[in-house]
Specification:
Structural class: alpha/beta
Mean pLDDT: 92
Low-confidence stretches: none
Radius of gyration: 17 Å
Number of helices: 6
Distance between the termini: 12 Å
């Protein structure tokens, strides 16, 4: 059975294909189905964005589909940046580019200056549309925001996020170490369990 993962991010695609290998599903990318347009992501929740992307592919291309959205939620900032994680710096400064990881990290560290509570969580939501039904799967990793960057691997906020129970940030871990405990890995494992049972 073929199913579309609404992404063209090769790293995410490889990770998800590996986790879903035993489900019997052939996972296609947006590129594989000829979808090259920017899919809207303008909902105010992770769940809303993920479902918006999955519905877009289903309605326009006819494929069963799943899509994900991820946010970093910092307790001292009332859950920010959350759904705005990828464009956090541009909310403070309209001149900042969206998806600028360095600017986003600088903005977050600046907003946490003087705060003692640095607890945070990464949360991934996967929305699945399969055989006419919609489903949601969530993966969460608790941790803390460090006061400075550590490590050079990973992407996004990885250099300043240290998961609970670990002494290294995501950016100091190998891809395998991170994937074993990551929010996306956990959400995808739930998706895989669901797909195996159908």
């Amino acid at each position: 059975m073929k199913i579309v993962f609404a992404t063209n991010n090769s790293h995410k695609l490889d990770e998800v294909r590996a986790i879903l290998r035993d489900t019997g599903m052939e996972v296609l990318s947006l590129n594989d189905i000829g979808c090259h347009e920017d899919i809207p992501e303008d909902a105010d929740t992770l769940e809303g964005n993920a479902m918006q992307k999955a519905r877009y592919v289903k309605e326009r291309y006819g494929y069963d589909c799943f899509a994900d959205d991820t946010g970093l939620e910092v307790n001292a900032l009332g859950g920010a940046p959350g759904v705005y994680s990828a464009r956090y710096a541009s909310l403070d400064n309209a001149a900042a580019a969206s998806h600028d990881s360095e600017a986003n990290m600088r903005c977050l560290l600046r907003n946490l200056e003087g705060k003692t509570d640095r607890t945070a969580r990464f949360r991934t939501v996967i929305a699945l549309i399969l055989q006419g039904e919609e489903h949601l799967f969530e993966g969460i990793v608790e941790g803390v925001i460090t006061t400075e960057r550590h490590g050079s691997d990973g992407f996004g906020y990885d250099p300043i996020f240290r998961p609970e129970g670990h002494s290294a940030t995501f950016a100091e871990m190998t891809a395998g170490e991170k994937n074993a405990i990551s929010h996306r890995g956990r959400a995808t494992a739930k998706l895989a369990g669901f797909l195996k049972d159908i």
